[in-house]
Amino acid sequence: MSFNTFGRVFRFTTWGESHGPALGAVVDGCPPEITLTEADIQPWLDKRRPGTSRFTTQRREPDAVRILSGTFEGRTTGTPISLQIENIDQRSKDYSEVAQAYRPGHADYAYDAKYGFRDYRGGGRSSARETAARVAAGAVARAVIPGVRIRAWVEAIGGDSIDPAAFDDAQIDANPFFCPDAAAAARWEEKVDAARKAGSSLGAIVSCEATGVPAGWGAPLYAKLDSELAAAIMSINAVKGVEIGDGFAAAALSGEENADRMRPGADGPTFLANHAGGIAGGIATGQPIRVRAAFKPTSSILTPVETITRTGDAAEIATRGRHDPCVGIRGVPVVEAMVALVLADQFLLHRAQCR
Amino acid sequence: MSFNTFGRVFRFTTWGESHGPALGAVVDGCPPEITLTEADIQPWLDKRRPGTSRFTTQRREPDAVRILSGTFEGRTTGTPISLQIENIDQRSKDYSEVAQAYRPGHADYAYDAKYGFRDYRGGGRSSARETAARVAAGAVARAVIPGVRIRAWVEAIGGDSIDPAAFDDAQIDANPFFCPDAAAAARWEEKVDAARKAGSSLGAIVSCEATGVPAGWGAPLYAKLDSELAAAIMSINAVKGVEIGDGFAAAALSGEENADRMRPGADGPTFLANHAGGIAGGIATGQPIRVRAAFKPTSSILTPVETITRTGDAAEIATRGRHDPCVGIRGVPVVEAMVALVLADQFLLHRAQCR
Amino acid sequence: MSFNTFGRVFRFTTWGESHGPALGAVVDGCPPEITLTEADIQPWLDKRRPGTSRFTTQRREPDAVRILSGTFEGRTTGTPISLQIENIDQRSKDYSEVAQAYRPGHADYAYDAKYGFRDYRGGGRSSARETAARVAAGAVARAVIPGVRIRAWVEAIGGDSIDPAAFDDAQIDANPFFCPDAAAAARWEEKVDAARKAGSSLGAIVSCEATGVPAGWGAPLYAKLDSELAAAIMSINAVKGVEIGDGFAAAALSGEENADRMRPGADGPTFLANHAGGIAGGIATGQPIRVRAAFKPTSSILTPVETITRTGDAAEIATRGRHDPCVGIRGVPVVEAMVALVLADQFLLHRAQCR
Amino acid sequence: MSFNTFGRVFRFTTWGESHGPALGAVVDGCPPEITLTEADIQPWLDKRRPGTSRFTTQRREPDAVRILSGTFEGRTTGTPISLQIENIDQRSKDYSEVAQAYRPGHADYAYDAKYGFRDYRGGGRSSARETAARVAAGAVARAVIPGVRIRAWVEAIGGDSIDPAAFDDAQIDANPFFCPDAAAAARWEEKVDAARKAGSSLGAIVSCEATGVPAGWGAPLYAKLDSELAAAIMSINAVKGVEIGDGFAAAALSGEENADRMRPGADGPTFLANHAGGIAGGIATGQPIRVRAAFKPTSSILTPVETITRTGDAAEIATRGRHDPCVGIRGVPVVEAMVALVLADQFLLHRAQCR
């Protein structure tokens, strides 16, 4: 079944294809009386917008969001919020070859195997263009949890990582890579340019931190905060791995090393470390929530690769058209949006059960 | 909200605490006319059962499952299947100290922060004992998808990995570590013994492969097969990371390296690689599904660590009682169960929408 | 929580207010490869359209539906189908009085009590205008279950019932009341006209029959076919009662009278009666599904009635503006749509669990 | 799909068959720190217990409930509450004939049509015995909304109604019919006795009122309070009709008659009438919630009736075994339980979205 709704009580449903007339999200369950206009949403979409630097796809989409329902006189009414973004710059002619042959790494073959049929234009529903709707919905989520600050950045591109010691929050918005390390950003400029020129692509790691999440949010056992975050992040196009806190590195630690010791603090415990990434037993501890996501390299590459056609014949395919050389970069606002959406949902769940 | 149900149409709900009278699962949505008796479930529980070697907790639980509903004359009827396991070997006296102070790394503090109150005996609901119910439910899931083979193993303990070249499927059940590499198993024996004797603990990485999953299973966009697997695996106690296919390693690859090329095959494509771990666009490609999980070291350690009490005072706590020195080992049947549960659900979802 | 999604696997979400720019539905879970264009949906909307006779509201809305996603080359793709209808003929000035005082029978006071705030224009979200989105979604549902014929009619207006002996299917679309009894239709013309001229309103009873539903559809126990139908019908504006089969009349029968005897038939049993309305134990028996709905009189009336203002003061209010004198009439296509939506969902659920 | 879970955030799942070893409910989402022991649940089960008078089935079940999880030291912990009731007095031999032939009015044929196979003993899962689990869960729901008083009674049996003017709350628990009118109770004694002796059965109407529900509870549009109540009530065995407020009678009223006029009150409006049954636009108005349910006569009768066998041959069947001559009587605590369960859920939903 095609489940295009996410969330338990703060829920959003997205719709739309890469080359259809529009795409959108319906946000349901938003509390009333929250200030919300297009101006609260647009900046987040602008952050994700294509065509803003040579390191992202050259598709030109204004991505102007319209609120079609759910607000009145600039405030939410508690009814569903319909958000809509028109597709402007489709060039469907670019994708004629894709209609016949499957692009390795893309969802082409899988969609045909499932549905027997697909909208092949720009990847149809499986296109990362859908993430614009998530980012719009995420902006509503942020408005629901104003005390929470969510901040993501790129930590590595093509295996080249930032220097944690050089982390500078102010840098993140100062370069086209959302990179907190100016030196790394300079290296990546060269690296991504080279990939772009070669028609190749690069993977990336995105890190995200949410501060201001009160201890207690989380819904054990099968809507655990970390479980929901994992589902949310893994549902993003191209993501192949998710970590909470130390993630895979924790598997190499001893219990003594991994223990986040506590001391009496002003308001709850002061933790001496945060290996857990702010979550224990699926519930927030009050420490910063730390999440990491691995983005595979964009599957669209110019190098011709072996594949098969719809009729099962051997073929070669090179993906022309406009693509991000490193889809992880524009993944930054999407990761933030998904984290916001999970946290807004968990906030409402928490106050349902626990006041 | 306390969401203790997992799944969309093949759903299970678990209940029970570590030191309550019993625990169980209710499996709902199971198709009718499937052969199912306790004998089909017990072997999987036995695989997870504590006290079978010195490398697991010494709590002695027979973990005998009873089917209380949903079958008739040895076959499922399509109605809810209630599975129940009694707790026999609780020793609640071991946990008196835990009532007052929070064990770092455990859910103690988070549960109190959320609920204002907790069943501290053996971790209560947050205990890994709950995973017995998952394994029982997972056995039902396996019966729903008999063509799928699900196999997990331990890939690394405390940072010491198996040699992929030495992988031997037959070894997995031949040692107490579910280790496919005999040499690694020998090393781990020493390593885990040392940790156990020192009252310390170790993390682990568990790998799982599911073969026989037909191309087409998966429910994009927010019940994607990989998203559901991520949620399922991350909901397991102590798991801090999940990977599909190459996972984080994919972030260091180029598009050319990562492309799973296809050639015409007898029945669908023959793939030349499986970086994707058998999933594209959230839909199975027909290749083996590959999932990895990072287990942190058991948080219960004998070394006294700084913490605070319920009333906010400074304290030290050492976790006495019986524990797994490496919780990842017994995580193997749990990972398998969760993968089975996701796949059974996706199978039913697929035939709902696509026949 | 504002739950604006209905259905288990065939799900739809509606959004939109009476006087917003547009309203719509997102249909999720629709099987692929079903022929679907605007032309398949529009006739059902036309049936519900306001302003078609003097017996319905004089608001003039073309109610032209647009499909914004989920189809490709005239067929469904298995991805979410976004349906949108623009609001054209809002006259928001009609509702200024409503902003300050609560109309008895309307949702005004309840919405304010819940949300602290409301879009008062035309009833905002609580307006029956939302049912246009249901009818659009229902047209998609019909396409999913082409073997099922769903037919509703008005059975009584203001306490004046049709003569069952005069039932003529051909009459239903031959008068503005969806009335299968020509004589009753003639009486109602006078009756509704009188109410309209007096600024009064009338209640109605709508009956619906679905034939061609195979024995076996239904999802016991809490998604029983009759339970889902009851929820669906009761969610329609102004509905205050739902019956399946004989409904309340069954409470006066003896067991012998109520038994639907069976004889061997060509394909399953031949039933000698259908007191059950085609459903037993929450599962379809293969007989026609029979549902009845009671619509209260439209709450909008010209007679001034006692009420209070937002600030709690005494007031009188008469509802000016354009309204249906008998909202049950236009309820006919809405009841049909809801029945179609439930049946499409149950069809998919059935084939998920039972093939 | 077999959906045996009800509720959005306060959810319960039931399991068990009439003649299995036990049946039960798992209540999930209950807030923590609520006083709850078996003694809080048992009285409600006792009210529904069979064998307490000659007007109910002679099956003797103590229906002793056990809480197996979710409480600690007499208070809820916020984790799932597993409630279990053993079946003691099964006499499966009574049902051998039912294995081969379908009882008209029962779910026998429908279950076979759906599942191809059924547990025929006592109706298996379709038996009203399952409602014991609902009543147990309902007792937990009551504890969640202590300010709400829920009270049901029998309003008519076999077409013989109480005199509303004779309504006496104190009478309801003073006779075996939950009848608020002593004179009617006397008549019913004769009537039900006659039916019982004749091996016949009678239908009934049950009325329920919930007071103390604050204005604002309700979750429009598809989890409207009335819609949820309709689903809940219609899911009860033998129920064929549901009304809110005036129900079908409202269809005969004019808008002037139906308007619930308001005057300024101490705390919100004072309503001059309650045709709406306490719900407008799917949201509680603060007036008493009024619900009515029509129960068909018990389908088990001694008179042999025409039917068919599993293999499609003609047959006659008379239902021996122990049955309620009027299943509506024991429906009273079940209706109350379902109303409580819906209200507890709506309470939590409301505070999730609206504080």
CATH hierarchy, class of chain A = Alpha Beta
Largest interface: A-B, 117 and 117 residues
Helix count of chain A? 8
Looking at the chains present, what oligomeric state does this protein adopt?
A: homotetramer
Q: What is the CATH architecture descriptor of chain A? A: 4-Layer Sandwich
How large a portion of the residues of chain A is in β-strands, by DSSP E?
Answer: 15-25%
Profile the largest sheet of chain A: 5 strands, antiparallel
End-to-end distance of chain A: 34 Å
Order of helices and strands of chain A: EEEHEEEEHHHEEHEHEHEEEEEEEH
CATH topology name of chain A, in short, is Chorismate synthase, AroC fold
Widest sheet: strand ordering of chain A: 1-2-3-7-4
Total DSSP E strands of chain A: 18
